[in-house]
């Protein structure tokens, strides 16, 4: 049998009005939020194997873009590389991630891509999916609290510190 306190806990925020309901919802959200990025995935809070920070991921991405532009420019000079840089970027992103788990920029910033479901290689299918979704931009810039973007979640991968 429910007591008056049980009923008050369930309905109290509703009976007290919208401000109380909002405070109750915030308290519930704070209680369910993990203490650090990657905690729900069983990752350590810091050090090797922890979720890679946004700054390192962004720096690695910029390094890969510049490298792709320079490689493409070497083949298209004196004309601008144009859209060919995108193809070069896909190649230097997909091939190394498939087999080694890191792009040149990721290796420089000491981060890597891993599968969520196993310790095996990322593999070509997941790497191609990550690359194509990154080209679309939006899946790569929307993150959850664990530090995984849509392209990581859809491809079953995560980016970790070395």
Automatic annotation (TrEMBL):
<keyword id="KW-0472">Membrane</keyword>
<dbReference type="GO" id="GO:0005886">
    <property type="term" value="C:plasma membrane"/>
</dbReference>
<protein>
    <submittedName>
        <fullName>RDD family protein</fullName>
    </submittedName>
</protein>
<keyword id="KW-1003">Cell membrane</keyword>
<keyword id="KW-1133">Transmembrane helix</keyword>
<feature type="transmembrane region" description="Helical">
    <location>
        <begin position="127"/>
        <end position="145"/>
    </location>
</feature>
<feature type="transmembrane region" description="Helical">
    <location>
        <begin position="58"/>
        <end position="80"/>
    </location>
</feature>
<feature type="domain" description="RDD">
    <location>
        <begin position="52"/>
        <end position="154"/>
    </location>
</feature>
<dbReference type="InterPro" id="IPR010432">
    <property type="entry name" value="RDD"/>
</dbReference>
<dbReference type="InterPro" id="IPR051791">
    <property type="entry name" value="Pra-immunoreactive"/>
</dbReference>
<dbReference type="Pfam" id="PF06271">
    <property type="entry name" value="RDD"/>
</dbReference>
<keyword id="KW-0812">Transmembrane</keyword>
<dbReference type="InterPro" id="IPR016795">
    <property type="entry name" value="UCP021697"/>
</dbReference>
<feature type="transmembrane region" description="Helical">
    <location>
        <begin position="86"/>
        <end position="107"/>
    </location>
</feature>
